[in-house]
Input
Amino acid sequence: MPKAGPCQMSTSAASGDDASPLGRWQRRIVVSLMLVLTACGTDAARSSPTLRPSPSASISEEPGFGTVEPAPGSDSEVYGPNPGAIVVAIDPGHGGCLDWGVPDPSERGVELAEKTLTLEIAHRLRDRLEAEGIGVVMIRDGDDALAGDDYPPLDCQGPPWRDVNGDGLSGFGDDALPEATRTRDELQARLDLANLAQADALVSIHINSPSAGGQRIEIAFSETFYTDETSWGVEATARLAELVQAGVVDRLAPLATYERGDRGLTAHNFYLVAPPLIEETDERPNRWAQPTRGGLMPVVLAEVGSITLRAEHDLLSSPQGQDAVAAGVFDGLAAFFGERELAGRIGLADAGPSQPMPVAGDGPMYWPPVAPVGPLKLRLTNTGTAAWASGMELVAGWEETDQPYLAFAPGGLVPLDVEVPALAPGESVVVEVILPSPPAGRGVAWISLGSGGETLADHGSPALQLSSEAS
Ligand SMILES: [Zn+2]
Output
């Protein structure tokens, strides 16, 4: 059985003819995020008529508490109790002048390259999710790269390179440091955006180019990659991968007029799905093979189909095929959120609609907001399908760091002096807390909800991170 090389690892510009300029760099805002923090309104008209009385309403007069706000309720197929509290990050694989992903094997042009098809599929997925009230972060919304796309030998004059992952290297690379330099910074920027948006899931969409011995193989199949090396990976990420894979396979099957396979799941630490590499070991000697800051939520990389079989390529280039893939990923996400019991979103209550915006410079692009001076108002929302246990604790800790944000919880998380109501699915509450004192140097605070020695971050609900200083 030939082993298919995942298209994430392919490089377009390395072989010259794979890449060509697309003309001018189109500067775009690459994120679109629906209102998340304001979605838990108190407007009675939006409340579900079947909502039961909140068990926590009686404590709303206590200092430090707001009123428990009922789940708005909806007919959302993805998360009925409070769809606006869910955020999905969609990564259309590849993009920009340099990185076409897999080019069209028939050399018909950029319109049929992997990067174009993944963006089309991603837009269809975005539209489906937004129609169900879900917040969406588009990692890229056009034919762009985030972390640099400047390479005159191939006539690419995109934005200048940045060292996003902090390895001291940036740019396209050279003979000593081949193309992966660019890829590492680009993929780190994509992870940073999803992490600081506190996305509930990150789905990266790719189309495979199966090959063996350097030869393309004309077969068609779907395959989904994930990591099982995070605390939530074995259960949550594997389950998301399983559901996305099944959704795509099922939706493409009725459209395929050719044989296509189901390669199922593979746990493999491709850069985008991998946990951060803490230190090099004999088993894991390559410090460049994993990100500095890994995804803080379930991340899956779906090779939705194959570009090398012409019939499959034609299907994935058609509106029907692209819509089927989007529907399949949507099905997987809806099933995932429909069975995710324990989850929560912690956000700044006064921030209003927010989305991570890139900062200028030549380093990391996305940084956390600055912690306000004095009492901190946080909105806590139950985004799972089970009520929170009573006695959940809001916990926080600081770490002094020059990293934009933390890849792991800092040591010594302490409980904050506030009682957390046992929120039902979709319910939210605003609480007021005082954070521990920040370190002398620049620090980042990590705020999560804990119970029984674990926090929601251990289950793949990203912590709220705040900086002690403006970046
Ligand atoms: Zn790819």
